[in-house]
Amino acid sequence: MKYTIPIALAFVSATLSYAQNSASYAQGLLQALQSANLTMLASAAGNSSDLVAALQSGGNKTVLAPTNDAFAALGATPSEDLLHAIITYHVINSTVSVADVSAAGNNVSSTLLKDDDFVSLPNDRAQVVVLSKDAGNGTVLIKEASRNVTFNLTSDGPTYDNLLVQPINTVLSIPGNLSTVASSLGYSSFADAASGAQLIQTLSDAETGLTIFVPNNDAFQAAKSEMASADRSAVQNILRNHVINGTVAYSTLLTGPNAVASVVSASGNSLTFGAGSNGGLTVTSGNVTANIIRTDVLLSNGVIHVIDSVLATTTTNPEAAASAFHSATSAAAARPSAGISGSSAGSNGAVGGAVGSVALVAAAAVAGALALMS
User: Fold this and answer.
1) Domain 4-168, classified CATH 2.30.180.10, yes or no
2) Cα(308)–Cα(221) distance, rounded to whole angstroms?
3) What are phi and psi of 284, to 5 degrees?
4) CB of 341 closer than 8 Å to CB of 321
5) Which residues of the chain carry a pLDDT beneath 70?
6) Is 4-168's fold the same as 178-373's?
7) 3 state SS of 91
8) Reduced to 3 DSSP states, what percent helix, strand and coil does the chain have, rounded to the nearest 5?
9) Which uninterrupted H or E stretch holds 245?
10) What is the sign of the dihedral through the CA atoms of 293, 262, 346 and 215?
11) What is this structure's pTM?
12) Which option is the CATH number for 178-373: 2.140.10.10, 2.30.180.10, 3.40.50.970, 2.30.110.10?
């Protein structure tokens, strides 16, 4: 018992010291933001002790800081929960300087947003932002589904303690579900077919992580006669080729020195990746090769890559699909949930697909598209 009081006093002293350090950090942060004329962000951050604590802990971070004009353009004040989610989505969990962002391709970086009301990525992973650079003027772009948001400066913004502050001209939008994103991209054949077949909710609610290769409207139209001659089973097999279930495979996993050469789709077939004649990526299934015409369109539970052809391979290998899905989800559970940092990117470890509701949903989507086009 004689040690109880000293230990208790030491605990109280440490707690008070931490509280004082936190208060000092918060005060310094608010002053730094105000000095940079980011007063509305300072006000939002100052009202959340949880946010300040998250900024202070866990190493260096980058704040994508909306200007006062950007906040004013929001109009109505978001709810407290939504505002907190918005702010955490603007914090990259590493230092990302202007020089770190490559003009050669997309750079994918993990944020602090992990709230399961807004994010459903494997292993409690945080949502990401996609960055690129304009090779002409050096401006850094944050690539969203329907717009690009730019850094205000072509050199780095101010720093405070462990934070690099990069002012931006617009408040970022948190990635939405498949229905919202597909509609915003204008891919009506896919969106209407999936909605009409009551498939959107199933894809949107998938919690194991998804990579979806979405054929554009022209691709659906070009495949109309070929798909119409296929029986129901063949159509289902074709659409399974467009889904990788259990893995969120950003473009940085598909290119570069550490790129994967192939993955297993939800049909159990191999999807191989290569370089196209225009310098972009291609994906091949069987004897069909599609150009990936847009990469890294973020979803709340995965990522979309837009392609210009339907991957019309009718064979299936359920055992291979199930094995790949098991490998992907097991690897995701084994890896730490810190996510992606800086300009590196990843998936859930092993890349794989699965037979299951997502594959059947995808198959029904094509069947619905054919019905709509007939």
Assistant:
1) yes
2) 11
3) -125, 135
4) no
5) 1-20, 191-203, 232, 235-236, 329-374
6) yes
7) strand
8) 40, 20, 40
9) strand 243-245
10) positive
11) 0.83
12) 2.30.180.10
